[in-house]
Specification:
The protein is mostly helical. The chain is built from six helices and no strands. It has one domain (about 1-30, about 40-159). It is about 70% helix and about 0% strand. The radius of gyration is 15 Å and the shape is globular. The relative contact order is 0.16. The mean pLDDT is about 95.
């Protein structure tokens, strides 16, 4: 029972952190549009440490997208992109240096479709794939790996 309580608590804390970091990025104009640098996406490396991060990231993204006023299909598909990225990171947990790759790819593939079809932004899929991918490389690849290496000494305390 203690392990389950720990996982639920960790998931809730990760969701809350994701929401707060997204709201900060949104206040700075970085949480949506063609180039997105959500500080919260750095948290997508956490499934390499704990499976609790998977529901935490999904719920955090879902709540964040609602709070920042995303359209319903964006809420669904954007949150699914984060969920797929978290699942991929968990699947690659034995290869920690690859932790940011699944969320970068899932967002770079799914979010351009959202921008084009749901928000009707003008531009090509490939253009948005590059701009969203660049933001994800900053968020997940750089900030996420800084977080990863900062947490690595404390790995035994995370689960």
């Amino acid at each position: 029972m203690k392990k389950r309580t720990l996982l639920i608590t960790q998931a809730a804390m990760i969701a809350a952190l994701y929401v707060i970091l997204t709201l900060v990025a949104n206040a700075m104009g970085l949480a949506n549009m063609a180039v997105q640098v959500r500080f919260s996406e750095a948290l997508t490396v956490l499934p390499a440490f704990t499976p609790a991060a998977i529901p935490g990231l999904f719920l955090g993204c879902l709540i964040s997208n609602i709070l920042i006023g995303s359209l319903p299909l964006d809420i669904v598909f954007g949150s699914m992109a984060t969920l797929l990225g978290a699942l991929g990171t968990y699947g690659l947990r034995k290869y920690p240096k690859l932790s940011p790759v699944p969320p970068i790819l899932s967002n770079a593939i799914i979010v351009p479709w959202i921008l084009m079809k749901i928000y009707e932004f003008e531009g090509s899929y490939w253009y948005f794939m590059i701009t969203v991918g660049a933001g994800e490389i900053i968020s997940c690849g750089i900030l996420g790996m800084l977080l990863f290496y900062g947490l690595t000494p404390y790995k035994k305390y995370l689960l």
